[in-house]
Design brief:
This protein is mainly alpha-helical. It is 58% helix and 9% strand. The chain has a single domain, classed as Four Helix Bundle (Hemerythrin (Met), subunit A).
């Protein structure tokens, strides 16, 4: 059941180049959403238990990878620099909670897309966003 005033899809969402999630550390007293605009912020949210529960942590990790790709596609001068930034993001997100099986599964699933994709960084970023949303649904 979602928090009062929030639809289920508002609990954790990839929207407009950001990951928006319900801050579960503030429940039940307050319903607060946080907007994360970089993969290190997603790592911090996972570590601080802003997002809780194995499935939600996995979704957050997948959305963090998609967010990293969105940012890297916009700033990378080459596929090589894009891949290097994605490697850093994937490692950082996977290590946010080393024992979280769902997190590792989701991040590894998206890492496979990066490794196997022969397209441009923009194409990869779009596919990763779709994959993260598919994991969420």
């Amino acid at each position: 059941m979602p928090a009062p005033g929030l639809a289920p899809e508002d609990i954790l969402v990839l929207r407009d180049g950001a990951v928006v999630m319900l801050d579960q550390t503030r429940l039940p007293g307050e319903v607060v959403q946080v907007t994360l605009t970089s993969w290190p912020e997603v790592v911090d949210a996972i570590k601080a238990m802003v997002v809780r529960g194995a499935p939600a942590i996995g979704v957050a990790g997948a959305m963090g990878v998609a967010l990293a790709a969105h940012r890297a596609a916009a700033t990378s001068a080459s596929r090589q620099s894009f891949d290097a930034e994605m490697g850093r993001a994937i490692t950082g997100l996977r290590e946010a909670r080393p024992t979280a099986v769902n997190l590792a599964w989701a991040v590894d699933r998206l890492a496979g897309i990066v490794a196997d994709h022969e397209g441009t960084p923009d194409e990869i970023a779009a596919e990763l966003a779709d994959a993260a949303r598919a994991i969420h649904s």
